[in-house]
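Page header: ASSEMBLY MODEL / two components / 766 residues total.
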Amino acid sequence: MRKTLWFMSMLIVVSLALAACGGGAPSGGGETVTVVETVIVEVTSSAPVVVAPTGFGVTLEAVKARGNLICGVNSQVPGFGYIDANGDFSGFDVDYCRALAAAIFGDASKVEFRPVTAAERFTALQSGEIDILSRNTTWSLVRDTELGGNFVHTTFYDGQGMMVPADSGITTLADLAGGTICVQTGTTTELNLADVMAAEGISYTPAVFEDADSTFAAYAENRCDAVTTDKSGLVSRRTVLADPSAHVILDVTMSREPLGPMVRHGDDQWFDIAQWTVFAMIVGEEFGITSANVDSIKTSATAPEVLRLLGNEGDMGLKLGLDNDWAYNIIKLVGNYEEVYNRNLGPDTPTYIPRGLNSLYTDGGLLYAPPVR
Amino acid sequence: MQESAKQKATIPFWRDERILNILGQVVFIIVLLFLASLIYQNMKTGLAKQGITLSYNFLSGIAGFDISETFLEYSRTSSYWQAYQVGLLNTLSVSIVGVIASTIFGVILGVSRLSTNFLINRLAAFYLELIRNLSLLVFLIFWYLGVFLKLPRVREAVIWPGDIFLTNRGVGIPWGLPTDSYPTFRLILLIGIILSFIVFFSLRAYSNRTGQAPLTTLWTSLTFIITGVVGWLILPEKPLFFESPVIEGLNMSGGKVLSPEFMALTSGLVLYTSAFIGEVVRSGILSVSKGQVEAAHALGLNSFQTLRLIVFPQALRVIVPPLTSQYLNLIKNSSLAIAVGYPDLFYISNTIQNQTGRAVEMISMVMLTYLIFSLITSVFMNWYNQRIKLVER
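Prediction written out in full:
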């Protein structure tokens, strides 16, 4: 109370530049005191506007100080980001977060997963609520620039597809003329749909929903003749429909959808760490280093690049601002690209997606990592 | 300090309550402005650090997305600003339909709740208690997923008399298409409005002159309706051609198709708000003391006259202020459209925000728009409230 009175009188002095005597607070201003007091409460509640840490090295420092990584993920797409039967987050994008945590802390469990919707993900990243966004997000020019983010690397090459009920007899986009198509808001999918249908001159009605759950719930209720999203998303969501076999994915690819993690503008070190985490997993697959054999390879390897990757030779990890066994930890604790892929999207999972473009360049795919040197 | 000693006769300004009061307010305003600018600067530096600058120029960019329900000409090449206007009109249409329907339904509920008929009274009470204690969001989702999406598929549409098609793609109703004689009919309707104004003012003048209370509203509206009906009948070609919806391909065409999203949103909002309006109406009627009714009967007024001339005008004064806040609630609650996928103002601005990353700009625009909607509504309702207050003599 004393302090408040003092603060208030100081404010009066300063703001009005009055030559009041230094005697102290006016005695008769009881009313004024209460009013200003309310304002002071306001100051404390609204002043700390969170400004996201930017600048070289700031993010890693903040993450280390906090003791865990905060990762913005999806919670509605099985195989990519989903809450499994045990209540744990699982999926391809989720495992990437674990790999990043393994690289930083040597402990894949030091991640806090924060589910974000498509509509709120960029704001969450911009405002610093999450350290990294790993949520099947399509790399596009606008997102790379205006939305204040940098795409780390494509972790999954995808394309937009269309799913229809098997008994509908629809086989091409043209069959959908006059129909209704369910789509999720705030996605590149929504824009591609408008693009493709306009280009092909097909009239349709969009039914737009806020998240994947409501989009597919409406589709399941036959609100729409078709539902569109990335093909991986269709495969994954089909597994949670009442009768997966009653739905077919049309043999059309409506767009290129390179999906990958995204970081904020302004911290190049953090960008490098995030990017090399992806590369370490790809290089791991290329050299056949798995979580099962990484220990024996670490002791027996002779190939110089493998030695550099696993930290036996050189100081690659230190250059990134990490420990030298960063890549060893990623592969040991989470696995290489192939392991992560097969765990979440492999033939033994309900969300099986053939690797296709997501194979190593040596197998005709697009996965190609720069040399570790 | 020496100065005050000289002017002993006058009160020093720091003890003068009048000056202190003004001073207090000035300080308050200055502090407020200071804080506002602090917050604004903070936001600006925060955004600048992320390389984002505040600007509304993006609104002229190409939207690139399609919208399911539009009252305006809109396509993917329209601008974000046009998309915003589409959302604005959608919100307005839901609000207007909602306000009118919930008022009618709410008055019926409120009166039923006071009915001496046990069944009507209890049913209304049950309805009011049930609806008022539900969450509106849950209620809307129930109407959407539980009712309108559960309707039969297009090919198995249920057709109600009057060619009302019930399907899970929407409710199709016949819709009037203007024919060649429509402009003439519009002219007749205009004449009807003028005639009813004449009736209104002459009846009021009669009432002022004689002290009688003629049924002004009834005669005024009857004049208009009769002119309309007569006009409809005498025109050789009917001014509107009613087209029924038909099932064509994957969807309905022709007539007017009300989407499940629109139906779920409006029915949810109307049924929810009408429960509150019902209570407002009931409390208004109950606020008129029994003595007033007894006095009216003693003066020889019959029940209808008592209701119309004594109870209703007095009840209205109690009803209007809370009714205004129910209207405001309805307008603001329409932003829950996002839960059922109806492209209203909030939903579309959310999409725009998400495609452009302009969060601060879009949120500020949406807040301003809802504020304007609400202020217009309350200005109108306050004006009405003032008017009915003057009934006192």
